[in-house]
Amino acid sequence: MTGSPFDLDGKIALITGGGSGIGFGIAQCFVNSGARVLLIGQTESKLAAAVEQLGDSARYFVADVTNEAACRSAVDCCVDMFGGLDILINNAGNHLKKSLLETSQADVQSVLDVHVLAAFNLTRLALPALAEREGSVLFIASMASYLSIPQVIGYTAAKSAVLGLVRGTAAEAGPMGVRANAIAPGWISSAMTDAALNNDPPRKAKILSRTPLGGMGEPSDIGWAATYLSSRAAKFVTGQVLAVDGGAVSGF
């Protein structure tokens, strides 16, 4: 087999939440590695701007991933537009910062709907197309999947459930030739994250103090890890969660 085992030449990826942040960082690395990408999101202007930056290898589809019919349409659109599907990236997410006592059932449900149910639905609907090309699914977990972080009880519950999705999907999709893994990002620099932490110096100091490599990660750090897990270099890797966190999950 010719070419680098780490490249994605000829691969087709569907990336939810691909218009900005980690999703866009993954899209950039995929395109640079030879893949074509379909970005999914709710804000057309953001998606259009992302596609313009990515070039001819990228397209977008406006959809709410919590809507099952929209998920089905997104998968169908990708297959119709590019001729198949090799990689599904379940990256779309929302966030909620409230104390446990202030968090309502509706609050928790809104986070579960995006991080867990949408990822489950997209994976289920994409699996037949992925199986045709022995593709892979990548979920985005979190430090909250492992650490006791205050004020994010709903998010922590959702990102912990993502670990179960990885294991369950790997067990059932493996016999179909489809791999399932996840990345657990550490604290990644973005306009939103930087603004939030700059307004909360004690929280920022705590994050940096427990990150052995120091500083914040970049979206491309997640993008290159996703490239590896989606490439044939990882053809015997499934059911795993890779922490890309500067050592935070194991830091003191």
From TrEMBL:
Signal peptide: none
Listed PROSITE patterns: ADH_SHORT
Domain Ketoreductase: 11-190
GO molecular function: oxidoreductase activity
Membrane-spanning segments: none
Domain of life: Bacteria
Keywords for this protein: Oxidoreductase
Family matches, as PANTHER family: OXIDOREDUCTASE, SHORT-CHAIN DEHYDROGENASE/REDUCTASE FAMILY (AFU_ORTHOLOGUE AFUA_5G02870), SHORT-CHAIN DEHYDROGENASE_REDUCTASE FAMILY PROTEIN
Family as reported in the entry's similarity comment: Belongs to the short-chain dehydrogenases/reductases (SDR) family.
Protein known as: Gluconate 5-dehydrogenase
